[in-house]
Design goal:
By secondary structure, the chain is an alpha/beta fold. It has twelve helices and ten strands. The strands form two sheets. The chain has a seven-stranded mixed β-sheet, sandwiched between helices. The protein has a three-stranded antiparallel β-sheet with strand order 3-5-4. The longest helix is centred in the first third of the chain and has 17 residues.
Length: about 290
Amino acid sequence: MTPVDFDYLRKALKERSGLDLSTDKQYLVESRLLPLARRLGLDGIGDLVTKMKNGADKVTADVVEAMTTNETFFFRDKLPFDHLREEILPALLEARAGKRSLRIWCAASSTGQEPYSIAMCLKELGPAVAGWRFEIVATDLSQAVLEKSRSGLFSQFEVQRGLPIQLLVKYFKQIGDLWEISPELRSMIQHRQFNLLQDYSQLGMFDVIFCRNVLIYFDQPTKVSILERLAKRLEPDGYLALGAAETVVGLTDTFKPHPTRRGIYLPNAMTKSPSIVPAAKPLGQFAGLRAG
């Protein structure tokens, strides 16, 4: 790959996806795009770039998809899901008791382990949420990973990564070498292809937003823009969950860190007691489960 080709790819990826590749990431580009070039019957990355320059939108879309990171697993990092069960859901169930509905957005849902993990947290509330309406909107730039998520099918390796055995038995059915998640959980999730550089107004308002492990791939101005647009989609008493290596500090004052829950952020306009809301009893059984 020539320096000219690498520079073109960097600019194209930044424009299409917001992905900000540093100059030392040429090895990453080659490792992701050389297999794509071979799959398309091309001689190398130079041919990919030529097709992109000639307006081959399908090739450009394939390049963007190959370069976006889709690493994920069930209950990834564990702590955000502890916060969801112990703090976020009890507080919102009390606050939304009148309308009995919650909307949650997974803003980089990948192959579905995160939205399905959230769905399991909600189902584990049991009779405490009888009659409630839960809507989980799972969005991702990649259509391929969304299709996998829609299928609800996961390999043995995937279900062994982070999913407690109790939940595997309860919510999955084995089909040959794969595990299929229950139709009941699949029905809780709406899948939509969405680019975080797009207009967010089409998505509506949310009570909780999970936007984890994606901001790290953007430059600072893009991070600021995304965070400020997320703030406009979050209810005044809602919650934003970021990845362990991500923060709003030093980027925007539209959010502030939760006083006791690391990785959770609150809209800055709200006034909320820092005390932890006790988990409801139906959450207690699930709180004892440990991902691993």
